Amino acid sequence: MIGIVGAGAFGRALAVALAARGVTLWARDPGSERLPGVALPEGVRLTGDLDDLKGAEALLLALPMQALSGFLAEHPLQGRLVACCKGIDLATLKGPSAVIGEGAFVLTGPSFAADIAAGLPTALTLAGPDDGGLQALLSTPTLRLYRTTDVVGAELGGALKNVVAIAAGVVIGAGLGESARAALITRGFAEMQRLAGALGARPETLMGLSGLGDLVLTCNSTGSRNLRFGLALGRGEAFDASVTVEGAATAEAVARLSARMGVEMPISTMVARLIAHDLSLPEAIRLLMTRPLKEE
User: How confident is the model at residue 24 (pLDDT cuts 50, 70, 90)?
Assistant: First the structure.
């Protein structure tokens, strides 16, 4: 049996995809519906009792990044724990694996919940201790997992691409054009590699599914909440406050972390300042475009 903690859109999608393995899906509110039109199949047991997850072969934590630390402090969990969230904790400036603790796994990569639930082909990265058994357990005919031991690189790719996706949305929302978006994505990817490298990630990890792959998806599809948030920001429109946008908190965390480490992250810093209403969009554009000229 596989246990999934969190019945939001991604948690429910994973439950649907893994139903043949036998899934117990925990929800704080079992009656809530975060993936409209997708029914839970046989093989998925919905529960509001965490005790029902005891004995699971793996526990997938499909919780928002900013809620993960508090949840684990209130509900210590045992077993093979797999983080399915993307971001950096604002309180500690740590990724999900460090929040969970030693031996944690991270499941990340280019994926929309609706695609996974519909059984569309999806490839993800499973980062953690060398555990082919877990890779096999979580792979299905439509969900293909690639394994890496570079946890830092995998989780940073998933976190930082959300910030770049917000910036890409701002560019399009403000009417700056596709050429500007292409440049923004490219330079944003350079920032991702810079910070990840400074934190010990392997360069090839950022070139894989959890970095470049996820960046391509989130910066180019309105299925991405981060892109849609950026579009609203660029247009000067309000955004639905009930929708979790992981990149918004991550932008603030990245700005603080990069400043502390002395790593140059101009795009991420501008995103954080825009969200905080610390500067206007025209001023952000001016600051980025008048930075000292340099080699690529």
Answer: very high
Please enumerate, by residue number, every residue annotated as part of a binding site for sn-glycerol 3-phosphate: 86, 109, 111, 161, 214, 224-226
Residues belonging to the binding site are 6-11, 28, 86, 109, 111, 113, 161, 214, 224-226, 246
pLDDT of residue 293: 85
Asked whether the predicted pLDDT for residue 31 surpasses 80, the reply is: no
DSSP 204-265: HHHTSIIIIIHHHHHHH-TT-HHHHHHHHHHHT----TTS--HHHHHHHHHHHHHHHHT---
pTM for this one?
A: 0.95
- Site of tokens 């996706």: 165
Are 253 and 90 in contact, with CB atoms under 8 Å apart? yes
Residue 37 has pLDDT above 90, yes or no: no
Of 54, 94, 161, 294, the catalytic one is: 161
What are the pLDDT digits (tens) for 235-257?
A: 999 999 889 999 999 999 999 99
Contact in structure between 160 and 245 (CB atoms under 8 Å) = no
Mean pLDDT to the nearest integer, 61-71:
97
Q: What are phi and psi of 279, to 5 degrees?
A: -160, 165
Q: How far apart are CA 193 and CA 214, in angstroms?
A: 14
Helical residues (DSSP H) of the chain, grouped into ranges: 9-17, 65-74, 96-100, 113-117, 132-138, 151-173, 178-198, 203-206, 214-220, 225-235, 246-261, 266-275, 281-289
Q: How much is the pLDDT for 149?
A: 97
- 94 counts as catalytic: no
